[in-house]
Structures are given as C-alpha cells and as structure tokens.
Amino acid sequence: MGHGPVVPKSARAFAELLLAEGELEEAAGDLDVAMTSDDPALVAFAQCNRALVRRRLGRREAGVRRLPRRRREPEAARAELGPCLGTASRARGSRGPYPAAMRIIVLGAGNVGRAVVDALHAEHELTLIDIDEDRLTRLADRYDVRTVAGNATTKRIMREAGIEKADLLIACSPREEANLVSAMLARKLSRTVRVIVRTSSVEYLDAWREREIDVDFMVSSELETANAISGLIGIPAARQTDVFADGKVQIVEFDVPDEAAAGPVIGKPLREAAIPGDSKVVAIIRGDELTLPRGSETIDPGDKVVIIAAPESARAWSRQIGRGHQDVVDDLVVFGAGQMGSTIARVLLHRGVRVRLVDSDHQRATEAAEALPEARVFCAHAFDPEFFERERIGRAAAAVFCLNDDAKNLYAAVLARVYGVRLTITLAHDPGAVSVYERGGVDVAINPRQVIAEEFVRFAHDPRIRQIAMLEGDRFEILDLTVRPESELANRRFDDLPQTGSVIGAIIRNGRVLFPHGSDQLLAGDRVIIFVESRRAALVEKVL
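Structure (tokenized):
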C-alpha cells in the first residue's frame, strides 16, 4: 500500500491478518520485522508465531492439500494459533467489523453467472441454480459451489437452494422473466434476503426506479456497457476506463505501444517523468508480471499502465501515450441496432456525440430511426465496402461494433480500420474473443457480461465499498472504500504504511479529491480509491 519500511506495530497487526488468511510467506516476512522490535511482548509474539508458520509451510511443501479459502477461515486459523495471537486480536475478532461469509444464491450459470462465481466463490458460500445440468457440472468441477438443477421460478427449487437462509440473491440469467419471477418469490419466502436482478429492458428499469418493482437493485448490461463506451471515447487511447466518486476520479488502463519512443513519461524513472498533476501510477503490468511502481520504475513500450487521475489529467495521459488518437470523439458509427446498439447510441446522443447507426435488418433499422430521431440510421451491411466509401465511414472518429457474432464484429472492425476509422471498439460475447480481437488490431474489446458482473460483485463485498471495477478480466480490482476509525493504518503517513500488494491512488476527504504523496497522512473516514490484486482484496478490506 505504501512504499516505506514496515514498522513493528503495523507488522504485528498485518501479520495477524496474513496468518488468518493463510498468506504464510508474507506473514513470515512481517514476523521477521517484528523480531527487531525493542518491545519484549512483540518479540515473544513473533517467536511463537514464526515457529507455527514454519510448521504450516512445511506441511504445505510436503503436499498437504489445502481447502479453498473462505472468509470464515480466520477463526479456524486463530484456533490453531491459540494464545499466541493475544487478547487484543481476539477482541478485534469478536467485535466482527467485517461481514462473515455470506450465503449467496446465483441464478444463471451462463457467462455472467460464471464471472460472478469466479469473483465470489473463495469468500462466500454460493449456491448456483440453472436448468442446464451440464453447465452446473462444469462450474461445480471448477469451483467450490453447491448447485441446484431446476427452474428458479418455482417455490420448490428456491427452497431447495436455501432461499430462507440466504443473504443475497443475484438473478443474472439471460431469461429476464425468470429473473423477475425468482426475485418476487425470494421476497415472499424470505424477509431478509437482498435481491439484485439483471435486466435488458428500459421499461423494467424505469418501473424499478419508480418503486413499482420490489427488488433492491436492477442492473442493465446494455446501459452499463454504454456508459463504459462513453467513458472510453472521452479518453481515446485508453484500453479500459471507469469513473469513480461521482466523476471526480477516473481509472484508466493504457497499452503503451510497442513502437513508442522515449518521451516525457516513457522510458524515464517515474521520479523524473513529466507525470500529469492530479494523477498517480498505481500499476505497471509487463507481460504477466505486476509491478507496484516506485520512483525508480520506468514505463516501457509494450507495458500496460493503470492510472488513477482527475478527468483532465486522464486526458493528458491519453495525449502522451496515445497513438495519434484525437483528444475528443464527436462523430461515431454504431454497427448493430439491436437493444445493445440502440442503448449505446441513445447514451452517446444524450452526451452530445453525433451518431450514425447501421443495421442490415430493415425492420430494426426502421424501429431505431423512429426511436432515435437525432441519429442518422442506415440499412446496410457492416461488410459492404461500397457503403463505407459512399458514406465516408472512414472519416468517423470511432466505430462501435455490436453485432451478435464475434467473428463478424472482428471482420467489420478490421474493415473499418482499413478505411481509416481511428478508434475501433468491439463487443465480445465470448470472453475468449477479447484477446483475439486485440491481436487482430481492434483498439478496445468489451465483454458486456464482465461489465455487469462488476456491479453484482459489489453487493457481496464489505458494505463500506461504494464501487468496484475489475481489470484484466478479474485479476485486479479498484475499490472505493472508507477507512474505519479503528483501522490500524489510520493516522499514519503513507510512506510508513505496510506493503499489502495494493496502492492507494486517490483520497476523497471532505468532498475534495487528493492524490497522496509519501508525506501525506491517511485519516479515519477517508474514502480511498485503491488498486489491489483480486486475491488480496479481502485482506485489504480488513486492514483498512
């Protein structure tokens, strides 16, 4: 989290959390630091626990199989460590500031359900419902989840899944009516369960906002994807972007071009680079290796860089890293006038972008023209070179491809690049298509199911988390998290914070956004925008 040395007091607090989470190698390092303390009680604590850590590491190396980690494991770990943790840590555990493992029912074992399960299975007790037994079997073989085969619109299946004792229902199947009926059933069968529903209907969303549908939250993959694309075209060189803190903070991931020449930020140590103000580099990804940046690190061609910044600073980064992308996209073509394409067009028109909408189906094109009179709508094929030339598609600043077939999206995007479109954005229905798109020359590939999964996952995290974004699939997370008054890290300088495999990129304090330096202090009540590896997110939630 910080870049300074670990002080003994923090070493003890953090080692206890690492021990409870099973992060034995990291715990051993913090215990070694605690051994250097002048405090005899702290040294005794370190000596006792170092022996236990070595023994447990020895069992692991000998091939002892470890069960998948869950958030309920800390109590079992503390039982083994016994009195060595001391009364202070037992008091913290008994106070229970963090939610226990939640009982979560996930309806739908498709791509969205799989993304939700992948993000939550290690920390919560999941039950997965689907009518397709083969899908359930594949996920049960991969993850530690309970499965129920059947129709979730029936009381029998919902009761078999355990709805009466569930904390959260995530209804994310592609069958919209099944999602709503199961949500209504959940409300009848349990007074305490929280209910989150996936929808693609603007009418359902409007009804929910007017409190005519009794669920806790509704999520639209079309609307979330449209918002993601709107953010991307504001920063044309970005690989991925997200907005936090009511638009005051922007998260941006850039691909540094392989052919990029040394410049103000590329090829120079970060301490010497001309980094735009009100921004912070929180990660450099080189191949499969993550580097949490220090002043001596450099941003090199071929790297992926994650930035947390004010919106104007994010655009400054785009100008420095971008490959000739213009600063503002004000003319865009959307290929595909189905629900997804029409929603994207509607959102962009609302934000002042000129939109041309193209679909080969005459009826869909006609309906889109009636629904979106501000857009220019064409009935044409996305693969027609004559149409590209006649309508000068190549002059568009960007094009979005929302066809229902990944191969067609890729071909149309490559054709658009040939005709001169500067920024191409494609939707990937198969998660595996994302890397193929990018290798094929597409600028940005978006998986709508991953976008919507981020919203679902947020409800199963610590209740202090206001927002969450996932990067690189779900390998990394950005969290908007409030620091507890009793946090061991409150009131400490940033350069004194222990290493937790994370970086705080921004703080919201009294409504103002700060981009912290080593001499700044972390305060209780601060909202922190923090980059963390997904496997360590629960640990960071606990230490803050």
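Residues 135 and 141 are 10 Å apart (CA to CA). The first strand starts at residue 103 and ends at 107.
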